[in-house]
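seq:
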Amino acid sequence: MAEAVVSIVLEGLSNPIIQALKSLKFVGGKVQSAQTQLQIMQGYLKDADASQGRNEAIRIWVASVRDAAYDLEDVIGTYVLKVAFKRKPNVLTWFTGIFIKGATERRIAYPHIVDPQVVGLARGTEILAMHLIKEKGPRVVSIWGMGGLGKTTLAKQVYHHDKVKRHFDCLAWVCISQQCQAREILEEILTKLMSPTNEQRQEIAKLKIDQIAERLWNTDAWSSLQAGFPMNEETESRILLTSRNKEVASYADKNGFLFEPQLLNDDESWELFKKIAIGTEDTNRKIYEHKKELGTEILQYCKGLSLAITVLAGLLARKDTVDEWNTVHKNVYAYIRRGTDLGPDYKGEGYEGVSWLLELSYDNLPFYLKLCFLYLAHFPEDYEIPVSTLTKLWMAESFISSTSVEVMEDVSYMCLSELVGRCMVQVGKHGSSKKIKTGHLHDLMRDLCMSKAKEENFLHIIHYYTFGDIKQTPNGRVQRLAIYLEKTVVGHCSGSYENYAHVRSLLYFVSSYCNWNSKILRSLLRDFTLLRVLKFENMYVRKLPGEIGNLVHLRFLSVKKSIFFRGAIIYSKFGMFADSRFTCPLLRF
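struct:
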């Protein structure tokens, strides 16, 4: 990841305003020296990034290079903006995106988006559909099993099964996070069943009452929800649950039906792997046979777990030659051993190394895609991420490049498509043009994303469950901050932000309107002077402080669905927006 940061800084040093400094007697030498030093370090960073997990000294060095690069980027950005404002506001238009070389050099602009995880699910789909629609069937049908087994994919197959759609009047699908908020879940179900939006109405019109609760984490979560689903009433409605925990699945209904999907057998594993990694058979039969031999050996480490198979296949789909496949084959065993920590005699009997197989897919990303992937850690669990918003956030953070032919939105979409093609991001919805509209992370892939973001000091997350929560301040500098506010939080807790002075990205996530004190907002805007991204939605604020106009680095501002009774004139100080979203009903400027 440090390689990506250094690349961004090097592009910043190539700015004409910075290049002009080279002619100054006391400054020019320092600018040239910084540029040379960064170019030298960049040559080491690619290998160092890959090795830091195994060497503590390298990890510390990479972290120090990353922080130093961030410092230099702050200085460059501040200086350029000051000079540009003195010259002419239009000079700032270049600053809406810093180019990253390599981002436009992908082989596949829009890879074919497959839905590969349907191999081996036909039998389970029929069994579950039968139990849901039979007259004297159980009230609750549960799918349980380990993470990555394909429970959610199986539930989706049942959800769209023709017999299920004909039998029930309507269907509702909800995802339950580990911080289950019962009232919000029940309200979401009622909204989908009784008062849908036009878009939801079109979706529900295709389906008849079956509730599908995806990812139930513990018995407490069900206890908080079951009042909305009384078990002693005669009803034809059904509930389909998914959970990793058999105890939770049994707890929901003692007389319910439990189903555990089976691991894929060897033939099914190869079918799934081949569909993603190879597609149709290679025209060169010899190359195909070599790949099949290597793929079959790699699949032994996946143990029939569909998520591991799809992620590894997505990685190999980007490798054309047999030599590249050989390299991955060697790395897989090394990563498995690192994950299990069972020494060189480990034979792969368990599933402890699966998370490290996912890490292999991350380590094989080019640096610009690593940044894009890590940015997904901002979003809450089970959050459907709008592609239009995500791509603008990437642009504002200077992750995306453009050329005279391609606009930045297209390049951003290409990056997302590649992450989907590598099976690291899952498609939520498609738009009318069949392009991806929303996406999300599998929970195991999100665990990896969160872990890497923390390891790289890329992001810090604060989650306020109740008013007055005191949150631990992170060690070291924070570059990006995401704050989750629960519906029960009436106001935001003021706290110490001395470690947040270098924050570039501040994203708030609230489930409904949150009432804010303008003094707290003013304090945040005063402290976070380096902000490039500010997402401040679903907020109720008496007055938008004028301090927001001092955020001279800001490139993305979203106050969508927020209410302000008194605004502030801010455009006079901004000249470099990648996107601004002022769509609140009572906002006035």
